[in-house]
Design a protein that fits this description.
There is one protein chain. The protein contains 23 helices and 17 strands. The protein is an alpha+beta fold and 645 residues long. Among the domains are: 32 residues, no CATH class; 111 residues; 127 residues; 106 residues, Roll (Chitinase A, domain 3). The longest helix is centred in the middle third of the chain and has 34 residues. The radius of gyration is 36 Å and the shape is extended.
């Protein structure tokens, strides 16, 4: 057959052309890429799938955002199954609300979009002294989120439209005071109870297991007595600091940067001004504002005629209580400290000048510039170290992507050693001995990163001692590692864990004895209530648990109030057993009026939240939203192997 192919190459090329080209015409190269990248569907909303790739990308973006805003946040929390599932639920919610906004024709006007952008503090910080938007910084802001300015505005418009879906509920939620009081009184009412505890620790002395019982427990529960797998590893880290080490800045570049930025680097100019303020709220009637402006004009004429009287006029007439007593003096301030119209006027004056009447949201100002503090220009030698650090940081940020690609390719292409990539990029190879899949308490950074640990203990790394792939462990940080020595998980010999086996057997038997005693007492006291020997009564409620165990409090609050007094038994698991006598219900103490209003407001928020959640549930049904991935379940920490102790 291969001879036929070689002899009829042109025919085979023509056949392949007929088979392959039409598919590209129908689907396009992008179509193939989309089919390849689409991946497994993890959720569906209204017939549209949310893929595993979308989920991964959304969770990565959310984790990066949280790491940036909270650098000390434990990385394990971000990479946990619960955190990933929460991201998926958020994706589904966003998709449901987006489809609802589209279905209900909820749109955002240009005026509404412009108002929202103007009110955004991040956007406001990009304005120049003349009030215009710094478009270069605006483009950088959009680019930092992977968007053009148009794309950024489109996303904000979309978000505003989606918010309208629930705005009708969240903006109008309320609850009647009478209804709130009934619910709150029931929620905070108290129970008078007496508790007889039968604690396992009180029965431990009665348990004396023999050697056979200990060995039997050991054989039946060997999973509890395992030493976890361990690995000695080496790893390398690529981050901005390591990239900086490979960067050198020439003396000419340092001096050029100094010449261009000397004034900025030396510090900001500060100005001292005094003002006379005539108050006029921005939402005051036009006539009132006009009257205030006329008064300011009168005072302006007065101080223009006698500039040296400015302080006296301010003391007598300024309505700024903070500065009037000081003759209107505001001391020194730099740009950004005052409202924009005031700042613009001050930095346009010369020393000793008096401004025209300046209008702001507070009213009308007359400003006198009393001093200018221009920072002394610092020498090149004074600023050299800081300039070099800044330039290295800037170049490292630009070079990181290129270096990251070399790092990623290097650890993959020479997978049996980290030395080549470390030598090429001048990285330090670090080592760790006896590392476990679960990081030790207090471990931080890369060695506590769930993705890195999963890769290190992955089959390829364990069985073939290959390098892991380049793992993103933080923004602008990649790591790769390899196992140099591995010890598999193993059951520890009985002789090594005998003391712990005995401890567990004693605890289990003691809990059984405590439970048995408690159940017997409960039956006896129910039959003859007068024979019950109970400690002093205490009052408990949801907000005042009095150190009562949660299981006990829940059982007490569920008791039928019509049958009091009554005895209930509560199994405390490994801690033992409790018999509780519920004597009576004590009504909630009426709160002070201020506290009552606060409680009702909180109740209204709860009620509005419940309504919003119910409405979202209806929308999920309407748009046939479904998550096809099982919710992760937590495992009990009490059953941890012995080596985790």
């Amino acid at each position: 057959m291969f001879d036929f192919v070689r002899k009829h190459t042109k025919i085979m090329m023509f056949v392949m052309f007929l088979l392959i080209i039409p598919s590209f015409v129908l689907f396009g190269i992008d179509g193939y890429n989309r089919m390849r990248e689409k991946g497994e569907a993890v959720a569906r909303v209204g017939g549209y799938d949310i893929t595993l790739g979308e989920w991964d990308a959304a969770h990565k973006a959310e984790a990066d955002r949280l790491r940036t805003s909270m650098p000390n946040l434990d990385a394990k929390l971000l990479d946990s199954p619960e955190a990933r599932y929460a991201t998926l639920e958020r994706l589904v919610r966003e998709r449901v609300l987006a489809q609802a906004a589209d279905k209900f024709k909820l749109t955002t006007s240009d005026a509404r979009l412009a108002r929202d952008l103007q009110e955004d503090p991040t956007i406001a910080s990009l304005r120049l002294p003349d009030g215009k938007l710094d478009m270069d910084r605006y483009r950088q802001l959009a680019a930092s989120q992977g968007l053009t300015p148009e794309g950024f505005e489109a996303r904000v418009r979309h978000d505003l439209s989606v918010r309208q879906v629930e705005a009708g509920l969240t903006g109008t939620g309320f609850s009647a005071a009478a209804v709130a009081d009934v619910s709150l009184n029931a929620f905070f009412e108290k129970r008078e109870i007496q508790i007889a505890n039968f604690l396992s620790t009180d029965f431990a002395a009665k348990v004396n297991p023999n050697e056979g019982e200990l060995e039997a427990f050991y054989k039946a529960n060997q999973a509890l007595f395992q030493a976890p797998e361990q690995a000695s590893i080496e790893y390398v880290v690529l981050d901005l600091e390591s990239v900086k080490k490979s960067i050198s800045i020439s003396e000419a570049d340092l001096k050029s940067y100094y010449d261009q930025n000397a004034a900025r680097l030396s510090g900001a100019e500060e100005r001292r001004a005094s003002h006379i303020l005539i108050n006029a709220a921005k939402d005051a009637p036009a006539a009132e504002r006009q009257k205030a402006k006329a008064r300011a004009q009168e005072l302006l004429q007065e101080v223009r005629k006698a500039p040296d009287s400015f302080a006296d006029v301010a003391k007598k007439n300024s309505q700024d209580t903070g500065s009037a007593a000081k003759g209107g003096d505001l001391d020194f301030f730099a740009r950004g400290a005052m409202v924009k119209p005031f700042e613009t006027a001050v930095f346009a004056l010369k020393k000793g000048d008096i401004s025209e009447v300046v209008e702001s949201d507070f009213g009308y100002h007359i400003i006198k510039l009393t001093d200018v503090k221009t920072p002394k220009q610092r020498s090149f030698e004074e600023l050299r170290a800081g300039i070099e650090a800044d330039l290295k940081t800037q170049q490292a940020q630009r070079k990181f992507a290129e270096t990251a690609e070399a790092f990623t390719n290097g650890v993959y292409e020479q997978s049996d050693s980290l030395k080549p990539v470390a030598d090429k990029l001048k990285l330090e190879i670090k080592t760790v001995a006896n590392m476990t899949r679960k990081p030790a308490a207090g471990t931080t950074g890369i060695l506590a990163n769930a993705k890195f640990l999963a890769a290190i203990f992955g089959p390829d790394a364990v069985e073939k001692k290959r390098n892991t792939e380049a793992i993103e462990t933080a923004p602008n940080q990649l790591a790769a590692g390899r196992i140099t020595q591995y010890v598999a998980a193993r059951t520890l010999p009985f002789v090594d864990v005998r003391a712990v086996v005995r401890e567990r057997v004693v605890a289990t038997r003691a809990a059984e004895l405590a439970n048995k005693e408690g159940v017997e007492k409960l039956a006896a006291w129910k039959a003859a209530p007068a024979s019950a020997q109970m400690p002093a009564a205490v009052l408990v409620s949801r907000d005042q648990a009095q150190n009562v165990a949660p299981q006990v409090l829940n059982a007490v609050l569920r008791v039928d109030a019509s049958a009091l007094p009554v005895f209930v038994g509560v199994n405390l698991g490994g801690q033992g057993y409790a018999v509780v006598k519920v004597n009576k219900i004590v009504p909630r103490t009426p709160p002070a009026e201020a506290a009552a209003r606060q409680d009702r407001a909180q109740y209204a928020q709860w009620w509005t939240g419940a309504e919003s959640q119910a409405y979202y549930g209806l929308l999920k049904e309407r748009f046939k939203a479904a998550i096809m991935t099982a919710r992760p379940s937590r495992t009990a920490g009490d059953a941890a192997p012995i080596a985790a102790r």
